[in-house]
Amino acid sequence: MKKITFSIFLVLGVFSSSITAQEIQKKYAKEVARLAQKKQVKEAFAQIKAQMDQTTADLITLTEILAPPFMEEERGKVFAKMLEEAGVDSIWTDKVGNVIGLRKGTSGESGYVGVDAHLDVVFPEGTDVTVKKVGDTLKAPGIGDDTRGLAMVISMLKAMNKSGIKTEKDILFVGTVGEEGLGDLRGMKYMFNESGLDIDSWIAIDGGSLGRISNAGLGSKRYKLHIKGQGGHSWGSFGLANPHHALGRAITVFSDAAWEYTSSTMPKTSFNVGRIGGGTSVNSIPFESWMEVDMRAIEPKNLDEIEIIFKESVEKAITEYNASGVRGEVTYELIKIGDRPSGELPASLPLIQRTMAATKLFGATPRLGRGSTNINIPVAKGIPAVCIGRGGKGGGAHSLHEWYLNDEESDESIQLALLITLAQTGLVK
Question: What share of the chain is helix, strand, coil (3-state, %, to 5)?
Fold first, then answer.
């Protein structure tokens, strides 16, 4: 850890998201600084550094188990074994596949503190996830996002047990499912909506460098538009209602209306047609056509409004197309494939204050921001939550060329995650 000096209490300027050092309340800066000087915490920090080779080995092991959304089971089993070997009081895999290790506190207070990284990666079945070493750099799809986070969770747990740390509150160490893409945060939705667990705060570890702190969720709604027709030969059935042609009209009508809306609405709202498909050959009128649409907004009201624009645009486009003189007609179905809520927590919350103070203690500039991560769910419910970066050097996230390199920040990112967790749970003296 970088040398801790009195300078942590000074005003050092403006962060990238207009959060200033003045907003770190002195009581939290002092609380976190005192905690970092505790003998047990120093010992845990030393353990994290000493076990970095094993943490890297864990990272490689987990990376080489491909885990697309809805196919996290095998990686979950290995992660569960790692949790068990690191030492938890109980462990289970819930209905949707979240792997959960409980480390009991001493106070008997209700309300768990959750610490998680997500099990899934964006890459489909069949992707080569063999880790290749190029000097000190590790290369493989998914090695940073978010497999590195999983290895951090294991390292934290080991360090706590080896240093004899006891906390006041219970901690849940979790590998969550369904964070990426069409997983639609299903793991977190289950944790907070259906599991029955009394969770009072959450710390997620995901991509990004030391200093990245998300305290807000960027909401999104995603749909698949599926258009069907009779299909036929391009010459012999010419004039028959064509799902592709109807889809093109739907894209045009929606794009025009959505562009007008987003150009005149604040804060930022976006829309995107990300995938289209259908058809069997160049000389066939397709019997089906489809597209997937993503809409995002900071403000929940804006998200609801652009969703209405999308639905009305599709209805208008299909009605107009069927009335355009074609033979027969097309039908359509709208399938919701994603729904992530927006929300924002104030920087004054104790968890966010502690996270900012701990980040500053490690010599990094806290940068509060917004993202589409696991914390969207608790944030939308007003439950204290932050998402912090996995540290180290890395790049190529969501690409086949993803890479990760251990450096000084790699140790510190795990130490930081532990310090934030202990500040939130309370350390038993």
Answer: 40, 25, 35
In this prediction the pTM is 0.91
For residues 359 and 275, state if they share a domain. Answer: no
What SS3 state is found at 56? helix
**Rounded distance between C-alpha atoms, residue 367 and residue 360, angstroms:** 10
The alpha-helical segments, DSSP class H, found in 323-389 are: 350-361, 376-380
Q: What are phi and psi of 363, to 5 degrees?
A: 85, 10
Number of domains in the chain: 2
Exposure b/e, 385-401, CB count within 10 A at least 16 = b: bbbbbbbbebeebeeee
- Residue 141: give its domain's CATH number: 3.40.630.10
| Per-residue CA distances from 303 to 267, 293, 327, 356 (Å) | 11, 13, 37, 29
- In this predicted model, what pLDDT tens digit does every residue of 76-116 receive, in sequence order? 999 999 999 999 999 999 999 999 999 999 999 899 999 99
299: β partners: none
Domain range for 34 is: 13-218+342-425
How does pLDDT run across 23-81, given as a tens digit for each residue?
899 999 999 999 999 999 999 999 999 999 999 999 999 999 999 999 999 999 999 99
Pair (258, 396) in one structural domain: no
Question: Rounded to whole angstroms, how far apart are CA atoms 329 and 325?
Answer: 10
pLDDT tens digits along 294-307 = 999 999 999 999 99
Burial 94-108 (b: 16+ CB within 10 A, else e): bebbbbbbbbebeee
Cα 321 from chain centroid (whole Å): 39
Residue 245, both tokens:
């042609």
Q: Is the pLDDT of residue 180 over 50?
A: yes
